[in-house]
User: Fold this.
Amino acid sequence: MGDMRYEAPDSLDQAVALLAAADGQARVLAGGTDLLVQLRSGLIEPGLVVDIKKIDEMRGINEEAEGWRLGAAVTGAEVGEHAALKSAWPGVSEAIELIGSTQVQGRATVGGNLCNASPAADSVPAMIAAGARASIAGPKGRRELAVEELATGPGQTALEQGEIVVSLLLPKAPAGTGDAYLRMIPRTEMDIAIVGAGVCLTMDSDSCAAARVALGAVAETALLVPAAAEALVGSNLDEAAMAALAAAASAACRPIDDKRGSKEYRIKVAGVMACRAARTARQRAQQ
Amino acid sequence: MAKYHVTTTINGDAVEFLCEPEQTLLDVLRDELYLTGSKEGCATGDCGACSITLDGRLVCSCLVLGVEAEGRSVETIEGMADGDQLHPLQQKFLDHAALQCGVCTPGVLVAAKSLLEKNPDPSETEVRYWLAGNLCRCTGYDKIIRAVLDAAAEMRGA
Assistant:
């Protein structure tokens, strides 16, 4: 055991000051479902752990003028119990609720799933498809970053020293918008995605007016796939549009090849999952 | 190195303890407070043998730091029976022989109790999904699921 210090500040300013002063030796503790495993295995030996769960701004689920704002320390279980959020963003909510077991849902947070920067993180493709933006606080003040720009590689983020994700904003969507997230896992529960697909689209009568498609677990980070969205826009999600969507999704993949899913399988399934998610998103958009 | 002084509530009793900042709540429960009902299976949050509730929320105590218990309310398997009176879930686990080696059982019971508090009339599928984070390598799960459904029916007065 090293000389780890634990702090649980109740203000964001204090948290940022602690992180900034720690010279890269600090880790943020939200739900702990990744951090404690890394601590225990000796993968990390931080001099300081900053528990952010006592900071009010990071705990709320609130509807604002700009959209729904989720505090970074909001847990999966809290999202699952929030009927209004689930109704507004069913795809994002179902993605968050897919993370881990009931026990993990009780602790794992939306900010943690993002900042742990696993390429297979379930909430991230759904957030990217929704156009979510991360609100970041740091020694130099506040900034915003699109969710697709936050992870830069496995376990790597664009956060600078002392910076912390405070909340995630799901921007207000036009009428006729629906979203969905689907993942492929080799089992039916308690597994890590070998492909994840998030789709958010806006229908104008029978025509797709706007779309965003994102894929997880098929590259070093979750990917926003503009070509896949372009395949949908202007269509009624007819067979030709769906074939183009699948082809564009598969073409964007550069996955690993491992025991849970071969490279070829992941590439093929990415197209299938994108199409299924798009159909569900359209159904929700037209409800 | 300085230890942290933590004041918390465990199974309704005010409890104070000292712990290292790296110690998990599971380690504190077992090694400092001698509440050894919660088991360590994997220590990575996969098996559920260390399940407890923290402020009423089902969690793996191996994924919680001991210092995080400050000011919170912890419920463990030791708080489940009322003296000699077993909780209906515990009795049904005996009636249905829903355990063999018993290592997963405290975690399964704590998780099942948490489910029935939230949903007194779960379907078999709901029980199976809720308990997906509690691994059992002996029973094949069927007896556990039947015991939980039977306990739920009894607790509803059905």
About this structure: The longest helix of chain A spans residues 263-285.
